[in-house]
Amino acid sequence: MSAAKDLIGRGVKIIAGSTSSGAALQVAPSPIQNNVLFISGAAASDADHRPQPAHVPAGRQSYQDVMTAANFFPPKTAGKKIVVFAEDTAFGASNVAAVTAVFGGKGHSVSKLLVPSKRPT
Question: pLDDT for 101-111, tens place per residue?
């Protein structure tokens, strides 16, 4: 985030790319507040895809991924138990929310198992 602020201070008008949803969510406010275009790349968290001026998400989002996965279930299926196994990050939380919305809305039971993104040292 400090690198983005430094670039903004030096007059950069476009900042592009991020390595994760968490990074994009941390960086996005500074460019937006300073009228600098922010193009977030690999970030797929649905929170990173909120419509905002000066922020263009350039990748797909979690909800789109889950809607694609829903096509693998027979259309009239209900009552399945689904566990979302993901990192305990903004991206993982976004996956849980998307699976809950899509599959929970079709009568399936959704639970989650979120794990730390890196091993304790």
Answer: 988 988 889 99
CB atoms within 10 A of CB 112: 17
Half-sphere exposure of 87 (CA within 13 A, CB side): 10
Phi then psi dihedrals of residue 22, to 5 deg: -60, -40
Whose CA is closest to 89, among 109, 114, 67, 66? Answer: 114
Residue 58: alpha-carbon gap to chain centroid = 12
Tallying the residues shown for the chain, one arrives at 121
Write down the pLDDT at residue 112.
93
Query: What strand order describes the sheet that includes 37-40?
Result: 14-16, 37-40, 55-57
